[in-house]
Amino acid sequence: MSYLDNIRTFVRVYELGSMSAAGRDLRISPAVTSSRISQLEDHLSVRLFQRTTRSLTPTEQGKAFYSGACEILESVDNAEAQVVSITDNPKGALFVAAPLGVGRRLIAPQVPAFLKAYPEVSVRLRLTDRKVDLTTEGLDLAFFLGQPEDSNLRIRKIADVERVLCAAPDYIATRGNPVSGEALVSDRHECLNLRFPGAPEFQWRLMTPEGPKRFAVTGRYESDDGDVLIDWALAGQGIVLKPIFEVADHLRAGRLVPVATATPPEPIQMACLFTHRKRQDPKTRLFMDFVIDRISKDVRDSGML
């Protein structure tokens, strides 16, 4: 398997553009990463990367080898997947991404039961509210809220999730309860916004009598962590837009109160992204089926939709 390991290492170095990043992704040391690339170069009698102290760039030979290397790995993965599907004994690491709220409240609670059912599988769950790239980040699948931007990926819809605009009673006592999106803008309410590199401008898409409309809200608070926004809302610092399942307990307890109810947010799609190749991996398919079935039940049973 050493030659295949070298090829896998090369692919990740090529995709991530860094020996250290590839090493972290593969959970091997930088020295091992460098050694595998050197072994591969010796075997091929070519230089695959131009290295300097500050950069690593693929050579023409490296660019040519990358395409074939991906095909080799895909063929091996598909062959292994066929064997596993026959023996019904999935194994190996599964790399999964999800938004913070979805991951903490819906995905993570399902992992122990899945691993108990499939003891030779390990799950590496990455939680982030930024958009992820399945290919460059080495992910098998990614749960998300909204619409995907990459049309080359497969999508499996889970549900349309209801959302709510809400604030703490202290905020409402100080600033009032806006009745609509127009009031959010005209009265310059403190809107708590999710912001990460590459995020669009702050606009909340709300339902009006004339149909969906975007409102350019403003606010001094922003974070790349959705749970931080909820904490700020609970502290009376502003209005937050969230899927109901993320704030349901606070709404039931009265810690947060719906606002601008005349123009509620549009529901948002919850779905799972995966590549054509990864769908053939039994453990990827099994994890999707296992988690999605339980998420749908959790959402229905909790009256979240």
What does this protein look like?
The structure is a single chain. The mean pLDDT is 86. The chain is elongated. The protein is α/β, with parallel strands linked by helices. The strands form 4 sheets. The chain has a 5-stranded mixed β-sheet with strand order 4-3-5-14-6. Strands 11-8-12-7-13 form a 5-stranded mixed β-sheet. It folds into 3 domains: 3-84, Arc Repressor Mutant, subunit A (Orthogonal Bundle); 88-160 and 269-303, 3-Layer(aba) Sandwich (D-Maltodextrin-Binding Protein, domain 2), CATH 3.40.190.10; 163-266, 3-Layer(aba) Sandwich (D-Maltodextrin-Binding Protein, domain 2). It has helices at 2-16, 19-26, 30-44, 60-87, 100-107, 111-117, 169-175, 181-186, 226-234, 244-253, 276-279, 282-301, and strands at 49-51, 56-58, 92-98, 121-127, 141-145, 154-161, 163-167, 191-194, 204-208, 211-215, 222-223, 239-243, 257-258, 268-274. It is 45% helix and 22% strand. The chain contains 12 helices and 14 strands. This is LysR family transcriptional regulator. It comes from Pseudosulfitobacter pseudonitzschiae. InterPro entries: LysR-type_TF_proteobact-type, LysR_HTH_N, LysR_subst-bd, WH-like_DNA-bd_sf, WH_DNA-bd_sf. Residues 1-59 form the HTH lysR-type domain.
* Average pLDDT: 86
The class by helix and strand makeup works out as alpha/beta
Largest sheet: 5 strands, mixed
- Number of continuous helical runs: 12
Brief characterization of the structure:
With 305 residues, the chain is an alpha/beta fold. The chain contains 12 helices and 14 strands.
